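Onboarding guide, step 5: your first structure request.
Type a short instruction followed by the sequence, for example:

Predict the 3D structure of this protein.
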Amino acid sequence: MRAAVLHEIGQDKLEVLDDVEAVGFGPGKVRLRVRATGLCHSDVSAMSGVLPQPAPFIPGHEGAGEVVDIGDGVTGLTAGDRVLVCWLPACGACPSCRRGQTQLCLAGFMNAGTPNFKRPGGDVFGFAGTGTFTEEVVVDAGCAVPIPDDVPYEIAALIGCGVTTGLGAAINTAQVEAGSSVAVIGCGGVGISTIQGARVQGAAQIVAVDPVASRREAALRFGATEAVSPDELADAKQRITAGEGFDYVFEVVGKSATARTAYENTRRGGTLCVVGAGAMDDNFQVNMFELFFDEKRILPSMYGGGDVLRSYERAIALWRAGRIDLESMITHRVRLDGINDALDQMRTGESLRTCIEL
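The system replies with structure tokens like these:
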């Protein structure tokens, strides 16, 4: 079958091959035919080595498709079911799951260390234990979440990661209050979803911050009240908050420099929500006096900061009601052969989300 493979960490292009086989099918597993998958910035981060991932590997974790076969012991799924891919399934039994923090369950991460593909030359891993830049993939049954018939595959794919992450940061983690002021630094697919979440929550001012003009223009269409470049943020802070700082600032880049900027633009007693996934050696620093004196809340948000199954349902309900716009987030569509063009478009900021149709 065909798949897009990264041979070594640090390479910036994928090779589309037709000699890849999905392996590992058996008890507790399902085989999926991937129909659509989104290109998420985390895929690029894994390719560059910012996020840890064994190689060679097949990127992609934001996918949707149909069940081809189910292994022994799998319940609640049958062949032909339409599903989205949950790259971080909850085991239901660990301490995090028992506390209701299923987004912190580590069971899904364990899958990342087990190859679920092979080629004549050897094993191939799937990113985050999935790997959706391929025609078929074998995953744990918990990774396959049924979706209603009225949800298109490309919309379900976005809900599988970027939309859930961004909406959840605003709704679950930060719990944005109605009438508040918000700044969102980084307006790719996750940042746009964060903006939509803040709008759903009733924020009065939502300032989108991004160096790319097209992304700033897009942010306005999705609910930002204004959009500025990074060097215009100080002026926006002065005009909108009289210099005090925003009630909520979301960092959706994954770098310590932008996290520091976000911290400095958060008002005393306000909330900095860190949504971007960064490198292990990139350290964010605050001094002990400002940490104490300013009483700013620093809240990381992992996969939307809540139960992902409930978050999927909420995203679908909001989409059905017209409260969030998911179709317009897909700015580009390609076949698998166009994956490297899609990567370039993401790196330059030209795209919000690219849907890869398989």
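Each response can be followed by summary notes, for example: DSSP finds twelve helices and 19 strands in the chain.
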